[in-house]
Design a protein that fits this description.
This protein is of the alpha/beta class. It contains five helices and six strands; from the N terminus they run βαβαβαβαβαβ.
């Protein structure tokens, strides 16, 4: 089994009171070097996106909102820009195939949106997703984070949720 840590959308525009605590946690995880393969995703809310057209949500479209947080920048070697919830762009999937990755360890923001959608897409494409709950959050609230955990357990498996810090 070849595994990768996927750091999803830990960007300035998603850092709030309910999500800021995970930045230092993710930094510690990256410093531990438990994962040989690490990739970051970066959401960009482009003009004419469904977020703008349907939800009338116009945030996280340009820097500094789209920038990955400064504390994690030293660890960014591979980054995939995305325009929707899922990390599964053609480039991202090609990366996984080239590296022969079959297990994805997911961390980041938002548990109930981008992290969950990436997990479900991974599951449906034959990858084995794990959610590292201690390193995930919702920029909206803790309630949404917990809803994301419940949905992950329902859609994939509660056994694939790792709740505490990685030792």
């Amino acid at each position: 089994m070849t595994k990768a840590l996927i750091v999803i959308d830990v960007q300035n525009g998603f850092i709030t009171k309910s999500s800021s605590h995970i930045v230092a946690r993710i930094k510690e995880l990256l410093e531990s070097k438990k994962f040989n393969t690490v990739a970051f995703t970066q959401f960009v809310n482009v003009p004419n996106s469904p977020f703008r057209k349907i939800k009338n949500w116009n945030k996280v479209g340009t820097p500094p909102e789209t920038n990955i947080v400064n504390m994690l920048k030293p660890f960014v070697k591979t980054v995939f820009k995305k325009r929707l919830y899922s990390s599964f762009t053609a480039e991202f999937e090609q990366f996984l195939k080239e590296k022969r990755i079959n297990q994805l360890y997911l961390v980041g923001i938002d548990t109930e949106c981008c992290v969950l959608k990436t997990a479900v897409d991974a599951f449906e494409k034959g990858y084995e997703p794990f959610l590292l709950a201690y390193y995930c959050a919702s920029h909206e609230s803790g309630t949404f984070h917990h809803m994301g955990l419940k949905m992950f357990g329902r859609l994939i498996s509660p056994k694939h949720i790792i709740t505490g810090p990685i030792k």
